[in-house]
Amino acid sequence: MSRLLWGMIGGGEGSQIGPAHRISAGMDGHFQLAAGALDIDPERGKSFAAQLGVSPDRAYGNWQEMLEGEKSRSDRLDLVTIATPNATHYEISRAFLEAGFNVLCEKPLTMTAEEAEHIVEITRQSGKICAVNYGYSGYPLVRQMRAMVAAGELGNIRLIKAEFAHGFHADAEEADNPRVRWRYDPAQAGTSAVFADAGIHAFHMACFVAGQVPAELSADFASLVGDRQLEDDAMINIRLDGGTLCRLWTSAIAVGRMHGLTLQVFGEKGGLSWEQQHPEQLYWTPLNGRTQVLERGDATLSEQATRASRIAIGHAEGMPVAFANIYHDLAEVLKAEKAGVAPSHLALDYPTAVDGLHSMKAIEAAAKSAKARGAWVAI
Amino acid sequence: MSRLLWGMIGGGEGSQIGPAHRISAGMDGHFQLAAGALDIDPERGKSFAAQLGVSPDRAYGNWQEMLEGEKSRSDRLDLVTIATPNATHYEISRAFLEAGFNVLCEKPLTMTAEEAEHIVEITRQSGKICAVNYGYSGYPLVRQMRAMVAAGELGNIRLIKAEFAHGFHADAEEADNPRVRWRYDPAQAGTSAVFADAGIHAFHMACFVAGQVPAELSADFASLVGDRQLEDDAMINIRLDGGTLCRLWTSAIAVGRMHGLTLQVFGEKGGLSWEQQHPEQLYWTPLNGRTQVLERGDATLSEQATRASRIAIGHAEGMPVAFANIYHDLAEVLKAEKAGVAPSHLALDYPTAVDGLHSMKAIEAAAKSAKARGAWVAI
Amino acid sequence: MSRLLWGMIGGGEGSQIGPAHRISAGMDGHFQLAAGALDIDPERGKSFAAQLGVSPDRAYGNWQEMLEGEKSRSDRLDLVTIATPNATHYEISRAFLEAGFNVLCEKPLTMTAEEAEHIVEITRQSGKICAVNYGYSGYPLVRQMRAMVAAGELGNIRLIKAEFAHGFHADAEEADNPRVRWRYDPAQAGTSAVFADAGIHAFHMACFVAGQVPAELSADFASLVGDRQLEDDAMINIRLDGGTLCRLWTSAIAVGRMHGLTLQVFGEKGGLSWEQQHPEQLYWTPLNGRTQVLERGDATLSEQATRASRIAIGHAEGMPVAFANIYHDLAEVLKAEKAGVAPSHLALDYPTAVDGLHSMKAIEAAAKSAKARGAWVAI
Amino acid sequence: MSRLLWGMIGGGEGSQIGPAHRISAGMDGHFQLAAGALDIDPERGKSFAAQLGVSPDRAYGNWQEMLEGEKSRSDRLDLVTIATPNATHYEISRAFLEAGFNVLCEKPLTMTAEEAEHIVEITRQSGKICAVNYGYSGYPLVRQMRAMVAAGELGNIRLIKAEFAHGFHADAEEADNPRVRWRYDPAQAGTSAVFADAGIHAFHMACFVAGQVPAELSADFASLVGDRQLEDDAMINIRLDGGTLCRLWTSAIAVGRMHGLTLQVFGEKGGLSWEQQHPEQLYWTPLNGRTQVLERGDATLSEQATRASRIAIGHAEGMPVAFANIYHDLAEVLKAEKAGVAPSHLALDYPTAVDGLHSMKAIEAAAKSAKARGAWVAI
Predict the structure, then answer these.
(1) For an interface test with C, which of B281, B288, B291, B296 has the most C Cβ atoms less than 10 Å from its Cβ?
(2) Which residue has the higher pLDDT, B43 or B176?
(3) Pick among B154, B156, B159, B294 to test the A interface (most A CBs inside 10 A)
(4) Distance from D23 to chain C by nearest Cα, in Å?
(5) What whole-number distance in Å separates Cα of residue A233 and Cα of residue A230?
(6) With 90 as the cut, is the pLDDT of residue D79 above it?
(7) Which H helix or E strand runs over B165?
(8) How far is A20 from chain D, CA to nearest CA, in Å?
């Protein structure tokens, strides 16, 4: 089957997330970049698109032009990735979904839960895909955790301990640097900074692995550098709907932590431990047994984890491969649709607008709880 | 100078903590075990004391006999260690302190904050020592952290992340085992289980390293196994009096964690990370700099850390050496007193009844906060 | 500039190395797969090529057809990757080089040093590129090591300790499995098994980091499973031409080692330590100083390491990115040539036929030394 | 039973090894320091002995006086530890053994194999104990490795990979410092420096775990700093008498390595990996299975490992506990002898003069092989 046609909005030259998407979408040969509005500067965007092999008539100056130009083409885009600044995600996603495109939106899906509800509603009515890039859920061993939990290997899940802590906003001298400052300004960033930006990945991962949705939470927010209005450190206790308690710490002032995304899952029958900085090993301790090291690529892993692996055991596959698994899922679903068949259930684990909605609700609830000195708030 | 005379109550044959005290007290040759009431069974206690080299007239059947026999001797005990069941600590410590002995009490010092207040009051009046065995504070690199913080190397301390999590009470089948059950029974264990038992070490260590005392806290307690009345997992946010925020997780159901006592300290100028399972390395990241590995025994460490090291760099010194440093401090203080001189300030870092009091207050505040669904409670 | 045209021989469906090449070549958008003879089965190869987007007229049944079809085209291939069985590398590389193509050959370049000499000679005369895929040299932190050594940060390099040990051929029950057996059969594998297959990567990396070429060696080969004729474990001492001593262990029977490719470099002024299983950290200990952790992506790294990084600090970039750096180098060189300018010196670190030649000489010398019970043999 | 009487020669104030012996001998309360000739300076030695609780009549100025004073006492010493400079070990051990004392000698037992043969001969005739302090063999998990090998859990042992590498003699500026220089001076240190000093521990451990004795070896010695006459780095291949191949690297110039004593054991049925810097974990990978983490103190360990543990699981026991296990073995044997019963077989794993002899033979063979450019030499 020929390659799927892929469009991209944002992610231009110098963007951090753009290359990750292009590497990931291209990795398995499923997608061909066919159209793009890649930059806030129209000319730069067009020229960069050309450099990436997009034909001139599909290299656009902005997303509105792209929508206009693409919506009536017969060689229609199979998927549009949105990697623009956060505040524009809702408007662009909505426009493309309403025009009948499938969308992969960078997180956050929207700036409010209400907007996210709207997106979910649109996708429910149209049947179109709106995926959200909680890309770390694509790691093979994260999928292994989910598969083990789903298979009952841990029994009832009592507790999840999740962390996403880094130290890149710890320098008080840098607090006024515009690159950092906007993140802690409610006018630009909304009701939450580090939880909405970093911790939300750990939140999604906890729900994803537990196979549950959040029910209520209690949050403590702290602003520890200068006069920041939004939190740069937060501790959140979350009760999931299946009864699992989740304790989540997120921080931007944890000097010495690089990308401290970790997950520990404790069930009746055993415990799991995984960290993003060494994503190739998962530690599994059966109750009253010895800790075992599950290596990515090991033949005994679940079919979900095996499907998500590309490289031989013992090599670091890396983060781009995790993102690529989201694209791989979408490709399978899109190709199945074209072929008029049902996609494999294995391809259905990608995060959707519903996940985006849960995240926005959790962020709003956490901000509310934090203001109420940790009162429990329903999600 | 000859060896100090040492007495021991509890810690008989088969006790877990007894050997640790004997190894630690004996390590530097400061103390000679001269008297003991080692066992709830008088005969077993006397026979075990003899085996340990105690002369028959100082091997007692219980602590009351020991107090009676020892209080008027001219070759008076320099220090009495109390390693009996928790509920007896207060009564025995009080009796020996009132009789003019110096005491090293296993934690918890008492069962209530009120009792701990009383002990503090007694020691204030008598001038006698009442140390409490928060033994992990004796690790050389824990003292290094304290020294670095005190010297201002981290600047103002913004956040401390502390953990003490294990998985030894995770087995629901074992929940009714008497060896486990009493810990979660309020009648026997008081108002808190895992925080009072395990988490309190992390709490003490955070205060010790920060050089601050606790001001207020908010706690979430969870009972995750069977119908336990007390918590087997807790998350506590603590504000210290110097402004540092402390986030503390403790658990007894974390399958796969052996002895997960860890401390991360984040200041204006850098971050520190240490874990008890690998106590010989401390990770120090100066703001905007590279992480450095501080090895125990390294010549560049603080005088506090150097004084607390006995073995060449690169070897594991181990936990008994940490406890031994508490004994070493006490020996220096006691010997200085005998010699009529002031002890080195380096010997004054051992935990005292005041630490025991702070701990009891924190436990009571945490239990109260947990009942009030996480309301902040002053300590 | 438009994409370079890329051809591939071997690496068909189910091949282990094929996807790694396609992921890596595609990662930066430099190369477009334009032609291929991908499979020993002509029809499967053509159909797989079509699936990968190759146009039918450039999907070939074998390499001879491909050479015939491609050599006179005006839209000539910029680079041909050879990923066929080892024994065919020489013949195919030679044919394409002689027809004026640039080649990236999987290692080993040839089966004998004599053949490798021939390839080197051809490239000297034609000026065409013959790169050899010692792909681990593309890791950013391996390039950091090379840059630090070249800059004199370690002073004179005294010793390199290199390892490549795995346990995938340890099962005696599997020794007769054809998938394993051929590797230890001199008729198919030549004079060396595990050194030629795995250890040679560590060998190349040592030379690459030291910036030296091998002078002499002494080898001990062992066949530890069943009646294997070739070695499954080897220890080799190598003297490099700049005086550095290199100690290299390689094994295929080291059960529990996944992909144990490690390098430790000890110089007058400090030591470095790196391991492929955790490629994102490099440990640097200045003489008499503290060990520092160099994170991939850290702003203080060399320009060589920085150029080779694509993903933000704290994420695992993974092995495909290492290979991609080889392709990236080649793309820069090829594009510079097209533009009639000199390529950046930073692009010239990819391994070439000269490295392939040194490897073949080392393999032959090691086999000779091993037969002579460890006698030193000039390379 | 009362405590055993213990004498010590050497290990005075400021000595590195002295405290380790006293901590270890005292740890379990088996031994009471009853006599000593602790220092080359008679007065300092006597005064330090008094400080350690030795009665004045048993505090001697030198070992000859001690031998004279002790040999006819009725309260005879049960064990004499020799911790003097290496060159004196033979003379002192011999004298005390011939006078009917049991001896624990620091390694090396002697300076030549011939001397070691003599000591072995004396112990054979007298039946007295001559233990040699290869103290790392006392680690519980080292004993676990030995027990697993002896029980056949790994099947036939194919290969042992052993290392003892540090960087403490890497500074060329320090090479002439007398504290370092003597170690590389043949007149003072004999035929080998780093192998005899450090590597020999790894050698002993390999033999101990394999349950085999050395048969032949091939060595490469290198002097990498200044004009040292003896080796500061060595690679040795050893064939044990049971067919196991052992590859051993030892170095004193490995900057960044603290105390790199590691052992990997590869058998037909699985592999083991252990390192002294983290002695509480042993990694066990059954063939075709997942790696398991064996924690020291785990209830499933062998009786040998369990007997050698004192502290609860999850704590670092440390190196002094390893040495203490040697003393514990000796105490059991000595007490059994006094009681006229056979000691437990579990107490018989301490290293003896025969191990000391194998070590001296290996050192001489390695020096000979290294001079012959790696020729294999029988041991």
Answers:
(1) B291
(2) B43
(3) B159
(4) 29
(5) 9
(6) yes
(7) strand B157-165
(8) 32
pTM for the full predicted model = 0.95
CATH topology for B138-310+357-378 is Dihydrodipicolinate Reductase; domain 2 (3.30.360)
Residue A282's pLDDT is what? 98
Give the nearest partner residue to D271 out of C254, C266, C373, using CB atoms. Answer: C254
Q: Kindly report the CATH number that applies to the domain delimited by C139-308+357-378.
A: 3.30.360.10
C222: which chain D residues are within 8 Å (Cβ-Cβ)? 159, 245
Q: Does D313 touch chain A (CB under 8 A)?
A: no
Interchain CB distance below 8 Å, D300 and A290 = yes
Which residues of chain C have a CB within 8 Å of the CB of B293? 283, 290-293
For chain D, say whether A294 makes contact (Cβ under 8 Å).
yes
Q: Which chains touch B (3 or more CB pairs under 8 A)?
A: A, C, D
Query: H/E element holding D165?
Result: strand D157-165
Chain A contact for B194, CB < 8 A? no
pLDDT in tens, D309-335: 888 888 888 888 888 899 999 999 999
Q: Which residue does chain C place closest to D283, by CA atoms?
A: C256
Per-residue tens of pLDDT for chain C, all 379 residues: 467 999 999 999 988 889 889 988 988 878 989 999 999 999 999 999 998 889 999 999 999 999 999 999 999 999 999 999 999 999 999 999 999 999 999 999 999 999 999 999 999 999 999 999 999 999 999 999 999 999 999 999 999 999 999 999 999 999 889 889 999 999 999 999 999 999 999 999 999 999 999 999 999 999 999 999 999 999 999 999 999 999 999 999 999 998 889 999 999 999 999 999 899 999 999 999 999 999 999 989 999 999 998 888 888 888 888 888 999 999 999 999 999 999 999 999 999 999 999 999 999 999 999 999 999 999 9
Domain with CATH 3.40.50.720 in chain C: 4-132
Rounded Cα–Cα distance for residues B237 and B376 (Å): 9
Domain A137-310+357-378 is found in CATH 3.30.360.10: yes
Secondary structure element (H or E) that encloses residue B303, with its range: helix B303-307
CATH architecture of B4-132: 3-Layer(aba) Sandwich (3.40)
* pLDDT tens profile A159-197: 999 999 999 999 999 988 988 999 999 999 999 999 999
The CATH number of the domain covering residues in D137-309+357-378: 3.30.360.10
Peptide bond into A279 cis (omega under 30): no
ipTM: 0.94
